[in-house]
Amino acid sequence: MTCDFDKITPRRNTNSVKWDVLKDDGVIPMWVADMDFQTAPAIIKAVEQRAAHGIFGYTKVQDSYYQAIINWFDRRHQWCIERDWIVYTSGVVPAISAIIKALTQPGDKVLVQTPVYNCFFSSIRNNGCDIEENPLVYEDDTYHIDWEDFERKTADPAVCLFLLCNPHNPAGRVWTCEELECMNDICLKNKVKVVADEIHCELVMPGCCFTPFASISQSALDNSITCNSPSKSFNIAGLQIANIICSDPATRRLIDHAINVNEVCDVNPFGVIALQAAYNECEEWLDGLNAYLYANYQALCDFMNNRLPHLKVLKLEGTYLVWIDIRATYKRSDELAKYLLHDAKVMVNSGTMYGKQAGEGFIRLNIACPRSMMMEGLRRIAGVL
Length: 385
Fold this sequence. Notes:
Elements: H1 17-20, E1 28-29, H2 41-53, H3 63-77, E2 86-89, H4 92-103, E3 109-112, H5 119-126, E4 130-133, E5 137-139, E6 142-144, H6 147-154, E7 159-165, H7 177-189, E8 193-197, H8 218-222, E9 224-228, H9 231-234, E10 242-245, H10 249-261, H11 269-281, H12 283-307, E11 312-313, E12 321-325, H13 333-344, E13 346-347, E14 349-350, E15 362-366, H14 371-384
Parallel strand pairs: 1-13, 3-4, 3-7, 7-8, 8-9
Antiparallel strand pairs: 2-10, 5-6, 9-10, 11-12, 12-15, 14-15
């Protein structure tokens, strides 16, 4: 299965959040995390065939859905999932919110590693909990974990959950087995349950290897809940499908109840069909996508080294979201993002979205687009910096 990732598919005036949130037709959007590539042909075909039926009533999720997930993670990640562990829902963010609701009380603390995906903050606050930060350490163009701080924060009796982001958005890290094992040991010792957001798990750069947190040991499986979805990897976020993987029946019952309370227990027929097509038929397409994204990242690094050497591009191990150190511009993150939008007609994410302190001095750039579009965006940025 092949795809022309260089092909530009117009998205303006398609009710796209990425392209239509601004009315300025001249802006290149390199912000929110969806891709400007058409999804895999097998997914398009499956959705078209389902649409041709013409009736879109409530959806019953059949055995083939669960089997597609089980086969994919066994084949792709050597992780053996049992059918009963899977709870479907409409998205990873609703899943995280339901898990927090199920496993915390108002006033509890939830640990995150900043800078981190901004929806973590709202999910925690919306459930009446407090955010506890374990700031990542920025060093040698990448991030490391402050283990002493991690242990100290998890030892706080008020901390009951740790939201793990792997691959990490926006830092671009794919945590190693050794790092995951250390997280697990510390969380077990301090009775902190791990919630692993692994939505970007298929988007990994060459030389890096993603390991599902729950697969590292029996104790990690028992003490964790995993959230995943094909939405980022196959560009089907609008079809709203995701899964919670939880091996413990008692915990799973609590989560299932919270999903029903939050009324995110129903999924649409296209999401169910698309997931099966993605996991059953689109592995070759995904490999091609990852190769293209890596080439985009290399092209970006070359451009930045030549045209914008004062900006530092962090190492990208996973996701298609590049984290850039802009402190040499002497502009604050929010200020620079506004400047690039106004003067360069390029929309990026300010780093402060991902932590007011931990994200200051950085911007996030989405490179999941045809290379010609990415290069035009970079030329515009270089033209004003």
